[in-house]
């Protein structure tokens, strides 16, 4: 059995696994034909190789720093595996003055062992403000949300560029993506009323194209165009993206033909009902992630780097401080026992 | 300090480094030691680069962290300064100045070809981990440069009865030890750069790793550094020249990752989102 572990601890195997990881990493990011997930194979091999080396390599018993580095590295690999299995990545757009809707979350990655409860997350989206400086360069983002923490206490948090909000283990991080949204009212011919919001394209990136498509409950496909009386963005000055207080109007087209225009409180009569313009608000896009084991990965990585630094100090730095004869002896010993 | 004056300072740096490079080549051809002259010019170039950064920082009210010009400027300064410090502390690598000057000359000449105009820093750059990430990255590349250039010294072969290495190093064994000591230290700082970069990315962009080209090639560089240390431990009879060549190859890969990748992929590491 020990022979098996000794063979698995081979430094040649380490080199093969490292090379495979490098090749798969480059191939996986350059070619869609290569799944980046294949890097799990050399990472798994390196983990086994590391475990076997820690078990059998006698040089680790005399080089504590090197041992700590390899143990830390093994822990990092193991936690990567756990993190990949339990992670959650997604994004969502949330309308100002409305509740977060988990059904609107677009899932990007969900680990097979993910056991979070995103369905139970609730918060109210408050004010949104993004500062820009000359040249349309984005500066501070401030997005305020209100929610109840795990103990049931009400909390009000401002999400910024450096700070996300953590709710039930999920972290909400503001992104560059945000824009304008119109709250609309649809009243059909029988008098039944529905409310909803149309999110226009990201602002200011698509300032020139505030267009959206919407299908009425009666089945008519409409092109909606938002027109602001005063432009929000100022390319050559500092400005803030926030809820506009100037006038605005909605133009509605169907198959390229203008069907009408409406300001706040007005409505446009269409086949099957009437479309009313209720309010102009903002929407904010959030990245959502769930990485409960990441702090442990950080600790393991710090442990590994600390071990490496200690190894450098004891084996390399000490050697350069010694006498020439001692140095030669030290270097040749280091050569024999490992790096 | 005006932009025009800043450009003139970069021209001065190019002239200093070009003169140092040619003085080194001429000295090597004659088998003469021009160490004092070359080192003096390198130190002068570093001082001018430091003054350029200080003047630009005061004018723009932000550090040189974003544009290609700023990346070249800050790295030319940090590489030069780190090498000066290393060669002051470790006499065995002083001969490597001969190889350091052309590398810095390349960066300085490149600076003259790219736009110098500053761009405001995105909000995601306001993060302490970014400072750790940038500092450890510069320490890694500077120490790796010293290691690789010392390896270049040892790769120079005797020709026509003249041991050209003698013009660059008097103690081959000490230079060999310095190559591997610095290489190991570079590996430590590279590991720290990877870790701090992940923490910053998780804080700024919501992901600790996303396989963007810069991240991928940085990982490949880390694997190469670790691989070379393992190769040295595995193949104990490996010719010395092979080991030095691998150290140089690792620096070339790191150099291309640092300065080549921003040309391929700008957005992920500039926070332009």
Question: Your description of this structure?
Answer:
The complex is a heterodimer of chains A (339) and B (273). Chain A is α+β, with helices and mostly antiparallel strands and 339 residues long. Helices cover 33% and strands 37% of the residues of chain A. Chain A contains seven helices and 15 strands. Chain A has helices at 2-8, 11-30, 40-56, 59-62, 64-86, 294-321, 324-337, and strands at 88-95, 106-110, 124-133, 137-148, 154-159, 165-167, 170-188, 193-202, 211-215, 221-228, 239-241, 248-254, 257-263, 267-270, 273-290. In chain A, the strands form three sheets. In chain A, strands 1, 2, 6, 7, 8, 14 and 15 form a seven-stranded antiparallel beta sheet that branches. Chain A has a four-stranded antiparallel beta sheet with strand order 5-4-3-11, with no helix packed on it. In chain A, a hairpin with a 3-residue loop joins strand 3 (124-133) and strand 4. In chain A, helix 3 (40-56) runs antiparallel to helix 5 (64-86), helix 5 (64-86) packs antiparallel against helix 6 (294-321) and helix 6 (294-321) packs antiparallel against helix 7. The longest helix of chain A is centred in the last third of the chain and has 28 residues, at 294-321. Chain A starts with a helix and ends with a helix. The model of chain A is unreliable at 323-339 (pLDDT under 50). Chain B has 273 residues and is an all-alpha fold. Chain B has two domains: 1-121, Up-down Bundle (Four Helix Bundle (Hemerythrin (Met), subunit A)); 127-273, no CATH class. Chain B contains eight helices and no strands. Chain B has helices at residues 3-30, 35-60, 68-89, 97-111, 128-155, 172-205, 213-234, 240-264. In chain B, helix 1 runs antiparallel to helix 2 (35-60), helix 2 (35-60) packs across helix 3 (68-89) and helix 7 (213-234) packs antiparallel against helix 8 (240-264). The longest helix of chain B is centred in the C-terminal third of the chain and has 34 residues, at 172-205. Chain B is flat, with a radius of gyration of 19 Å.
